Write a sequence for this structure.
């Protein structure tokens, strides 16, 4: 009888595994990215409502970046830290916020949740990507498409659902499908050595600093300066994500021109009396930022493999984003939130000047 029960259990696991393998890797990865996007965007908006401090709001995304600097060994089961983070955010969203102490509890809990989320991402991201790429018919390009769709859909869901409890629960559910890859085999769940940290690239770091600071205070800016709602904030993010893949239709213009164009686009998005136009302007903003990242990758001519170029961009941008988020938050804490846009424009102008006369390249190097 015991042997029969074990056979039935193994047969059920085989059927489950077969069903899981039918799900395209790009859908699993896209679902996970959609869930992550909802959690990050919704927690950013929630913190902007709890505190008007630019420094606190700027520190929130920085907390999620900290684990990337710790050299953690890869372990796909670290993904469960992201699920724990989502569960914690759901619990915090249920708490009544009626006094200073309760606000402090929710604030501290949200920062802890973002730190857990970043830890899970640092631990498992590379392992899960490798597992998904090993699936038949999978490729880096398909995963990238699924990731872009996940970002876009996650921001749309954030815009459509409010308050936070309605956002965090779908975020958790979207994180779950990829957990089917965690139990594919026992060997894959063992820790693997962390890769050597890529060299720091100055221009990539500066790009991360400027763009990271722009989005670090975006929720607070939309709430305090524009008087917008969570819908407006999330639609701006959705427009930005929609614009990023459109960089393939960008004209072949100089790098400095791309950064220069971002300045009037950002300014006009703030002074435009038409709200939908302000949101729509983030579509070309997304395309320009995406094309500038590709230009930076093409500039790494001494690095032969495209994957290593992307790692240098991501690592250097993360360092820059960490500095930019806290730095802009601190400056706006001293000078006032209204200085956020002028300071970001100064950063974009600096990037434009540094790239002056650099030949334009938009095609990725294999």
């Amino acid at each position: 009888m015991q042997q029969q029960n074990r056979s039935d259990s193994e047969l059920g696991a085989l059927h489950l595994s077969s069903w899981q393998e039918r799900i395209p890797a790009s859908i699993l990865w896209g679902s996970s990215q959609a869930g992550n996007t909802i959690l990050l965007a919704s927690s950013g908006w929630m913190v902007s409502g709890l505190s008007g401090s630019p420094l606190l709001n700027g520190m929130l995304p920085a907390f999620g970046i900290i684990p990337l600097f710790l050299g953690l060994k890869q372990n796909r089961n670290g993904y469960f830290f992201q699920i724990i983070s989502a569960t914690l955010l759901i619990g915090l969203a249920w708490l009544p916020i009626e006094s200073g102490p309760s606000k402090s509890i929710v604030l501290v809990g949200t920062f802890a949740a973002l730190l857990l989320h970043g830890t899970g991402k640092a631990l498992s991201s590379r392992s899960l990507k490798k597992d998904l790429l090993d699936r038949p018919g999978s490729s880096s390009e398909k995963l990238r498409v699924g990731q872009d769709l996940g970002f876009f859909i996650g921001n749309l869901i954030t815009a459509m659902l409010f308050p936070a409890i309605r956002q965090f629960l779908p975020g958790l559910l979207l994180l779950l499908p990829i957990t089917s890859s965690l139990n594919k085999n026992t060997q894959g769940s063992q820790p693997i050595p962390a890769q050597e940290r890529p060299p720091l690239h100055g221009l990539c770091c500066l790009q991360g600093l400027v763009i990271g600071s722009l989005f670090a205070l975006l929720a607070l800016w939309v709430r305090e300066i524009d008087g917008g709602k969570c819908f407006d904030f999330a639609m701006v993010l959705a427009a930005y994500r929609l614009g990023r893949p459109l960089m393939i239709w960008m004209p072949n213009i100089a790098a400095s021109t791309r950064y220069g164009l971002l300045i009037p686009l950002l300014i006009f998005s703030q002074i435009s009396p038409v709200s939908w136009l302000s949101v729509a302007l983030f579509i070309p903003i997304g395309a320009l930022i995406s094309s500038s990242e590709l230009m930076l990758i093409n500039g790494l001519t001494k690095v032969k493999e495209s994957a290593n170029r992307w790692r240098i961009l991501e690592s250097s941008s993360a360092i820059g984003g960490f500095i930019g988020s806290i730095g802009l938050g601190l400056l706006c804490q001293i000078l006032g939130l209204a200085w956020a846009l002028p300071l970001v424009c100064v950063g974009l102008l600096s990037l434009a000047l540094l790239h002056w006369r650099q030949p334009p390249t938009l095609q990725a190097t294999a």
Residues 100-133 form the longest helix (34 residues). The chain has a mean pLDDT of 85. The two ends are 57 Å apart (CA to CA).
